[in-house]
What we know:
5-stranded mixed β-sheet; 7 strands; Heat Shock Protein 90; 3 domains; two-stranded antiparallel sheet; binds adenosine-5'-diphosphate; Rhopdopsin 7-helix transmembrane proteins; single chain; alpha+beta
Amino acid sequence: xxxxxxxxxxxxxxxxxxxxxxxxxxxxxxxxxxxxxxxxxxxxxxxxxxxxxxxxxxxxxxxxxxxxxxxxxxxxxxxxxxxxxxxxxxxxxxxxxxxxxxxxxxxxxxxxxxxxxxxxxxxxxxxxxxxxxxxxxxxxxxxxxxxxxxxxxxxxxxxxxxxxxxxxxxxxxxxxxxxxxxxxxxxxxxxxxxxxxxxxxxxxxxxxxxxxxxxxxxxxxxxxxxxxxxxxxxxxxxxxxxxxxxxxxxxxxxxxxxxxxxxxxxxxxxxxxxxxxxxxxxxxxxxxxxxxxxxxxxxxxxxxxxxxxxxxxxxxxxxxxxxxxxxxxxxxxxxxxxxxxxxxxxxxxxxxxxxxxxxxxxxxxxxxxxxxxxxxxxxxxxxxxxxxxxxxxxxxxxxxxxxxxxxxxxxxxxxxxxxxxxxxxxxxxxxxxxxxxxxxxxxxxxxxxxxxxxxxxxxxxxxxxxxxxxxxxxxxxxxxxxxxxxxxxxxxxxxxxxxxxxxxxxxxxxxxxxxxxxxxxxxxxxxxxxxx
Length: 532
Ligand code: ADP
C-alpha cells in the first residue's frame, strides 16, 4: 500500500534509496581505508577545529530532532519522540564539549575542565545515540500494539526535552566537578591512557552492535534505513578510534570529519525524504484539483450543449404555437395555416426528442445509429424546417444539389444536427445585413468514389480574420447569447464519421462551411481500426 504511506516513518525504502544508502556505507569504508595507513601522522593543532565541527553538528542534530518531533506529532509516536530526544541530548552535550575542550576557548578548557572532561562528555554522547536507537526500536513495537495515547504529543515532547536538558546538565556537572572520580582516558591533553582503552572500546562496540542488530531485525521504514547508515558511520569511527593514540593526528581529524559526515547524512536524508514526500503530496493534490476542474468543465459542456441543441427546436415550437394561435384567433380563423403550424410544432417536438437521443448517444460510449440515406433528401427536409424563418427574414435559399449523389451510410440524426447548426449560423450571420442580397446557398457534390461534399454559403457578415482560427474552439462565440458549442460539436460529429468540417470566406463577403463525409463511415483514427 505504498500510496497510503505518507511519512518516512512508515514508508518502506525503495530500490533507489537502498542502493543510495549502500553507496554511502561503501564511501565510509573507503574513507576508513584511506585514513588508516596515515592515521599516526601529526598535524598542526587547529584550535578552532573542535568549535567549528561541534557548531555544525549542533545545528544539524537540532534540525534532525525537529524533523523527527514533527513526524512524532503527526504519527503520535513515542518511538520518534525518544529518538528525537536522543538527538537533542547529543546536541546539548556538544556545548560543554566545545567549552571544555583544551585550547578551544582557554588553554585547559572552560567550566573548570580536567584532562578527561571532554573525553567523558564525548563518550557519553557517543553512547547516547545508539541507546536512543535501541529505545526507538523498543517503543516502535510498543506503539504498534497500543492505541495512541490521549495525552497531547507536544506535552510529551516538552517533558522529554526537559529530561534531556537535565541529564545533559548532570553529565556536564559530573565530567567537570567530579572529574577526578571518573576513570582517566588521557594522561595529558594529547596522549591517551591505554589501560582503559580496551574496556572503553568494548563497551562502545557492544552498544553499536546491539543497536545495529535491533534495527536490522525490525527494519521497515526509510528512517530505519538511514539510521542504519548512521550506525555504520559510527561503527567506522569506533574502529578508527581503537587505533588512534593521540589528538591532532590525521586519524583524529579524520574521526571528527567522519562523525560530521555520518551525522549530517541522517539530517540530509530526512530533509530530502520530507521534501520528496511533500512534493509528491503537492503534485497529487494538484492532479486531484485538475481532475475535479475537468469534471466540472465537462459537466458545463454537457449542460451547455443540451441547452444549445434543445433550445433551437423549442424556440421553433414556441414560434409555431403562437403563429397557430394567431391564425385561429382571427375573426375568420385560418384553419389551413393552423394545421401547418401544428404540424411544424409536432416536427420540432420530434426533432427535440431526436436531439436528446443524439446527445445521449454522443456522450455514451459505443457505436451510434448507422443508416443508409440520401444526403440531398436530408438537406431538403432540414431546409423545409427552416423555411418559415427564412421567409420571415427575407432570406433566399438556393439549392444546387448533385442528383447523382451516392447514398451515404451515417448517423442521420447527427448529420441533421450539423446541417441545422450550419443553417442557423448562416441565418444569424445574415441578421445584421440589410438590403436585397440575403442569401444562403447549399451545394452538394460527389468528390470521388468515396467522399461527398456539402457546402453551406451565406452572404452574411463573414468571419473576422482574428476569429477564423478560433471558431471551432469550444465556447468561442461572438454572439451575445451564443454558447460557442455548435461548431465544435459539428466538427466532432464530422470527424466521428471519418469526415471533415472547415470554413472559408464566401465570394460574396459571407462565409462558406464545407462538410466532407465518406460514403461509408470510416474510423476517424485511420484504417484498420474497428469501427463498431
Ligand atoms: P454560437 O453560434 O453559439 O456562437 P458556434 O460554434 O455555432 O457558436 O459558432 C461560433 C462562432 O463562429 C460564432 O459566434 C460566429 O462568430 C462564428 N460563425 C459561425 N458561423 C458563422 C457564419 N456563417 N458566418 C460568420 N460567422 C460564423
